Each structure stands twice: as C-alpha cells, then as structure tokens.
Amino acid sequence: MLSKKQLTQSIEYLQSQGFEAPEVGIVLGTGLGKLVDSIENQKVAHYNQIPSFPLATVEFHSGKLIYGDLGGKKVVVMQGRFHLYEGYDFIDITYPVRVMHGLGIKNLLVSNAAGAVNLDMKKGDLMLIDDHINLQGGSPLAFKGVSEFGERFTDMSAPYDKEMNDKLKSLATSQNISLKEGVYASVVGPQLETRAEYRMLKILGADAVGMSTVPEIIVANHLNLPVSAISVLTDECDPDNLEPVDIADIIAIAGTAEPKMVALFKGLIELI
C-alpha cells in the first residue's frame, strides 16, 4: 500500500544526502547504465539505504539513485529499475517515479531494452515510443486511496510528451542518429515470447516489446509529469526465423547502441 508518510521519509532522506531540487529524472533500462559516467558532482544513494525503497534483484541492474549535473541541469538518475517478473507489485515498480517527482523533477526520461516486432526495425536501432500497449495485466493506479495522489481516471490519450518527442527527433536528425518511432508493448516476462506471441503482438500493432516502462509512464501521467521514452532494440523478433536469444547478447547490443541514446538524452536535457 502506498502511503504519503513513506514517500515523505524517502524524499527527506534523499534531501538530507544532498539531492536538492533536481529538474530532470531519468530511468535507465537493461544494459543502459553508462549515462551516469557523464554526470558531474555525483551524489549516490543505494536503494537499500533509502527508507521504504524497493531493492533491485536483477544482477545487471545496479540499484542506486545518482544525483548530479548533466546538460546544465540537476538530474536524478535511477540506475536499476524494478519489474513485475522480480515479484514486485505495480506500486513498488513505480515508487521511485513518485519519489523523484516529490524531489522536484519537472520532466522524466525513460529508457529500456526491447525486441523489434516490426521487422523494418533492426537490432541496434533506437525507437522513440509514441504510444504503448499495456499487456501486464494490471495498473499502478488500481489501489484504494489513489485519489489522494492524483486523478484516479488518468487520461492516456497522449501519454508521451509531444514537445519533448519533437525535440528528440530534431536532435536525432541534427546528430545523424537513426531514430525510429513506434508502439511499445509491455509484457510480464521474464520468459521471452513464443512465435505465436510475436505474431499476436504484430497484429495488435506493437513495433517493439519489453517487460518494463509502461507502469512508470502511467504514473508520470498520473502526476502530470511530461515524459519521453526510448527503446534500444536488442533483438529481432521474426516468428518465421526465430533464433534463441542469449541475455548476454542483449546486454552487449544495448551497450553498443547506448552512446546514441546518451547523446539524445543529454541534448534534450540541455533544451528543456
């Protein structure tokens, strides 16, 4: 159960550690932790030190909040997110977004590693998320007392901020970075999809599929927090030529594509 007392304890602890008035929050996905190397004057809070904070259990998610300067702004970065497949509920998964909002962020940037369902997209490509399909079987707003934190019936007609997305597209063009655009489907995992499931996702209109992001986007909209998200496409989900996927390969491909995502996020932070 979400409580304002818990949120206050988390926020006050981080403020006591020097996390003062960040302007931009960032959530980093699987294999996408290098952005923190660009942050200056860092202050670090490990999740296990923050009151009421969940703990990261995935071995390639490091589990810490990092505060500092990036692109001329104060930022707070979530290095290591939470997933349904780890046994967390939707409130746990989205708790850090509420904490970052409580610290003062005005914009949220989200990244993830995803599989390309649209076969016009290739592994190593970046996809700007324009819309999403929630296939996780629940909502981070479906709890008693949600109205204390925002509008229960949150509008999702345009969940991703058009102004920030337009800036990202312009930055990609000016930096000669190929940036696709499409629909992200979020599933539970942790198993990858079957051939039949990839065919279903294509019929539904998904361009990419992953196991995160959508709950965080829903809560950002609940908080009236402008949000943009980029998927790093790490594998091609061709049901007619499907090959086994190795998680190590996914991490490696995310790492090779990551500098492009970092460049776009840094450019956007300078502009907003």
Automatic annotation (TrEMBL):
Give the record's GO CC terms.
cytoplasm
Which residue stretches, if any, does this entry annotate as coiled coil?
A: none
Q: Which domain of life is it from?
A: Bacteria
InterPro entries with a match to the protein in the record: Nucleoside_phosphorylase_d, Nucleoside_phosphorylase_sf, Pur_Nuc_Pase_Ino/Guo-sp, Purine_phosphorylase
Q: Name one GO biological process term.
A: nucleoside metabolic process
Q: What class of enzyme is it?
A: transferase
EC number per UniProt: 2.4.2.1
Q: List the keywords (alphabetical).
A: Glycosyltransferase, Transferase
Role according to the record: The purine nucleoside phosphorylases catalyze the phosphorolytic breakdown of the N-glycosidic bond in the beta-(deoxy)ribonucleoside molecules, with the formation of the corresponding free purine bases and pentose-1-phosphate.
Homology family: Belongs to the PNP/MTAP phosphorylase family.
| Name of the molecule in the record | Purine nucleoside phosphorylase
Taxonomic path: Bacteria, Pseudomonadati, Bacteroidota, Flavobacteriia, Flavobacteriales
